[in-house]
Write a structure and sequence with these properties.
By secondary structure, this protein is α+β, with helices and mostly antiparallel strands. It has four helices and five strands; from the N terminus they run E-E-E-E-H-H-E-H-H. A five-stranded mixed sheet has the order 1-2-5-3-4. Helix 1 runs parallel beside helix 3.
Length: about 140
């Protein structure tokens, strides 16, 4: 009987984008929405996602990561995936030195940004805009 493989799940949020990362032992493959990270476009979003993989290179080579991302735009999705990958790598390694590395490089790899979209109000098209009035 086989021993169960260690599977880590982590999530990340940015604006309206939500990412769920599943991490398993493997050879270092990363897939975003069932597509390889290497073929992802635009280039800026791909580089943003790769940051935690480059900081934790020795851990990232030992695991395969699958990320499902929904909602938001492409940069919001990239940052949500970045947070999910960073948290999954941190949970897999269980090493405080890696957490210090992430904090030294960029704290937002683990913590993320708590700001969210402001809700729409009555009397306008968005959160702050209102219908104009004219008295003359």
């Amino acid at each position: 009987m086989k021993a169960k493989a260690k599977v880590i799940q982590a999530s990340g949020k940015r604006k309206t984008a939500i990412a769920r990362a599943t991490l398993r032992k493997g050879t270092g493959k990363v897939r975003i929405n069932k597509k390889a990270l290497e073929v992802m476009e635009p280039e800026m979003a791909k580089l943003k996602i790769m940051e935690p993989l480059l900081v934790a290179e020795e851990v990232a080579k030992k695991v395969d990561i699958d990320v499902n991302v929904i909602g938001g735009g492409f940069m919001g999705q990239a940052e949500a995936a970045r947070i999910a990958i960073g948290n999954a790598l941190l949970n897999f390694a269980g090493d405080e030195k890696l957490q210090e590395k992430f904090f030294e490089y960029d704290k937002s790899i683990i913590k993320g940004d708590h700001r969210r979209k402001e809700t729409k109000k009555v009397g306008g098209r968005g959160a702050r805009s209102k219908k104009q009035k004219s008295y003359r």
